[in-house]
Design goal:
This protein is 34% helix and 17% strand. It has 306 residues and is α/β, with parallel strands linked by helices. It has one domain: Alpha-Beta Complex (Inosine-uridine Nucleoside N-ribohydrolase, Chain A). The strands form 2 sheets. The chain has an 8-stranded mixed beta sheet with strand order 3-2-1-4-5-6-10-7, with helices on both faces. A two-stranded antiparallel sheet has the order 8-9. Helix 1 packs parallel to helix 2 (43-57). The two termini are 25 Å apart.
């Protein structure tokens, strides 16, 4: 049986690869909606980017525009990494399709209420603003959520501040709400996603797939990046979320208590990796990935796209 999922995203190059992997896996994943949030770039652009990726895949999954700012803090974006439009290197035209009517938060609430008996899996790839708003506006949906598989946080140092990973830094209050909601969470922080780097040979094979998706991904993975970023390789942070749904045997981690800081260490995810606090685990924190095998399987899937 296919797993019903919804992807909440702020594309972003690695978000784009995650979406394309989901589109290429319709035999295993029932992608019911994509919702967009402000993060890597503003929400108008993340929505346009999601539409561009959907056009590239030839898909028709509904896309709903969501929150344009975090719950409390002003929005901080990452054009310095992703480029002015968030998808530098992709070479994609403007969207040829339009977003579905209705706000992303209301769409998420409706999806959860209409979920199959086994529930729906939420796959947040950016700041957790939409998810937190849905939980606060409609707490009745919580039992309908099978699990939350998300990219965010870090066991050690962050990537936007010494303390914090970007997604949790942008909206730490939303992250705190989600981790306090009592639903099963699989967390993909920087400790594992920075291992998810394709070899140069694998990147070249993606570019040689002979399809538009492969050319776009190759362009995004090989684009110039500032400050030496990508000199070794381009980590596929968000693609790990979708890969975990498809191939959980490629990942390993442990159940931990995770606390999100909203004060001086804004966005810091304090992870009780060794169980020293005695507090009950609220997330399965993934710590390692078999990166070579991951990209071998991804390449096979991506080859099926237009």
């Amino acid at each position: 049986m296919r797993e019903a999922i919804a992807i909440d995203t702020d594309p972003g190059q690695d978000d784009a690869v995650a979406l394309l992997l989901a589109f290429a896996s319709a035999d295993l994943l029932d992608l019911r909606a994509i919702t967009t949030v402000a993060g890597n770039v503003g929400v108008a652009q993340t929505t346009a980017n999601a539409l561009r990726i959907r056009d590239l895949a030839g898909a028709d999954t509904p896309i709903h525009r969501g929150a344009d700012a975090p719950l409390v803090f002003p929005l901080e974006t990452a054009e310095f990494v992703c480029g002015p439009d968030g998808l530098a290197g992709a070479g994609l035209p403007p969207p040829a399709s339009a977003a579905a009517p209705g706000h992303a938060v209301q769409a998420l609430i409706a999806l959860c209420r209409a979920a199959p008996e086994e529930g729906i899996t939420l796959c947040p790839l950016g700041p957790l603003t939409n998810i937190a708003l849905a939980f606060r506006l409609a707490p009745d949906i919580l039992p309908r959520i099978r699990r939350i598989v998300l990219m965010g946080g870090a066991v050690a140092l962050g990537n936007i501040t010494p303390a914090a990973e970007f997604n949790f830094h942008v909206d730490p209050h939303a992250a705190a709400i989600v981790f306090g909601a009592g639903r099963p969470i699989a967390m993909f922080g920087l400790g594992v996603t920075l291992q998810a780097i394709a070899s140069h040979a694998q990147v070249a094979r993606i570019g040689a797939l002979g399809n538009a998706a492969g050319r776009a991904i190759h362009g995004m993975l090989t684009r110039p990046r500032p400050g030496g970023l990508g000199s070794v390789g381009h980590p596929m942070h968000d693609a790990c979320v979708i890969a975990f749904l498809l191939w959980p045997e490629l990942f390993a981690g442990r159940d931990c208590f995770v606390e999100i800081a909203t004060g001086a260490l804004r966005g810091r995810s304090t992870i009780d990796w060794n169980g020293r606090t005695g507090r009950a685990a609220n997330a399965h924190v993934v710590g390692s990935v078999q990166a070579h095998d991951l990209f071998e399987r991804m390449i096979e899937r991506l080859a099926t796209l237009p």
